[in-house]
Amino acid sequence: MQFMIAPLTYRTREAKQEAVHKAYELSNLITDEETLNFILPGLVVFCEKIIDEQTYIKIRERIRLTRLGREFVEEMRIAVKNGEARGETNGMAKAVRAIMKSMKLSAKEAMDMLAVPDGMRSAVQMML
């Protein structure tokens, strides 16, 4: 809550806008998606009267990306589980690559997110 309310403690509108922008930039360091899904919309709600358009657009895009990223991961898990991806390893490698790109994660983090089996990790790693 402090993260979202802090920008409102400044006196001038410009200082408040700068604080909102800094809060957004600091949110890039947060890796927990649940926390991001709480902080970013809260920042918009608390600061809606003072937030500048560019920062608002950036925050909105970030919120959308986290949600899309989560939906994408779930769809890929289902596709791999149902065998819809051609070749389990190839499909898994494509999924890992897509998550790495869209969510800016390392290969290990993406494989952890997709719960890639230990026996398949080296093969997937070679395909990246």
Describe this structure in words.
This protein has helices spanning 2-5, 13-27, 33-46, 53-81, 88-103, 107-114, 118-127. It has 128 residues and is an all-alpha fold. The mean pLDDT is 80.
Features:
mainly alpha, 128 residues, 0% strand
Secondary-structure topology with pairs:
Layout: H1 2-5, H2 13-27, H3 33-46, H4 53-81, H5 88-103, H6 107-114, H7 118-127
Helix pairs in contact: 2-3, 3-4, 4-5, 5-6, 5-7
The dominant shape is elongated
Quaternary assembly: single chain
Tell me the distance between the termini.
40 Å
Give helix % range. Answer: over 70%
Order of helices and strands: HHHHHHH
Question: Tally the helices: what do you get?
Answer: 7
Mean pLDDT over the residues: 80
The Rg value, from CA coordinates, equals: 19 Å
Count every beta strand, where a strand is a DSSP E run of 2 or more residues: 0
Give unreliable regions as ranges: none
Largest beta sheet, briefly? none
Give the helix/strand class: mainly alpha
Strand portion: under 5%
